[in-house]
Amino acid sequence: MKSYMNRFSLLLAMISFFACEKVENKISYEGGTAPALTASTAAVRLEAGEESNVALRLSWTNPNYRFTTGLSSHDVKYTLEMDTLGANFSSSKKYTTVFATDLSKTYTVGELNAILGNTMRLQLDPRRTYTLQVRISSSLGIGTDAAKLTSNIITFTASPFPPPPKVPVPDAGTLWATGDAFASSWQNPLPGPFDVNQRFTRRSTTLYELTVNMPGGGAYKLIQAQGNWGTQYHMLTGGTWQGGEFEKRDADPAFPGPPTAGTYKITVDFQLGLFNVVKQ
Fold first, then answer.
1. Among the CATH numbers 3.40.50.720, 3.10.20.740, 2.60.40.3620, 3.40.50.10240, which is that of 176-279?
2. Per residue in 41-64, pLDDT tens?
3. Domain 29-158 - what CATH class?
4. Whether the Cβ atoms of residue 121 and residue 104 lie closer than 8 Å to each other
5. Is the model's pTM score more than 0.90?
């Protein structure tokens, strides 16, 4: 009888377990508050010689993401966007950077000036005043944009100045191309008419251009002084005939010539350390 009662009790317990409705603790997202963005000034001063000074301090509030279990303990990612007025943060010049959990960023004169000049590539010569806009977005998780919230927009003015060019400019403001990618072949100094036909035009302190006929194939170097290879410029590894980075050094590799004959425009930007070649 006792054995029978024990088996009956066990059966009742099993029926009760499987009959009960399973209750789950569901965690759901309840929202957050868009970050409030503030700036230390609306008129940023950028001047050469003051690179270590503070130019702009941006601060923003925590979005306080909420779940049914309370405030979120997950990491918050902040994405800062900077663009020119009227571009609606969609131009090719837009600057974007990410902060992990930080609630402020202080830019020095040198740092902000480099962003505007070298990263956003705004006009530096001659100087002009830009009106720029900044906003910041928060999201949950460093590698995601979940629960994205976007702040108000801050507007400020600044006049970027040319930072030191990435590659030293020609000492005398002169630049020639020579090599078997041109009719001159590898001559240095260049005799006439190549000393004229293969001489670059200086468009600004740091920008040089040359439009010239090229036979297709071959390679070339850039020289700043006739008869001198020691102060030449050469392409850095990774570039192509269409463009890439370069440096001032008596070394290889040379710039490769385009594969087909034609008229080409070569642009050399010492400010950014970049060159590009476009068929005309």
1. 2.60.40.3620
2. 999 999 999 999 999 999 999 999
3. mainly beta
4. no
5. no
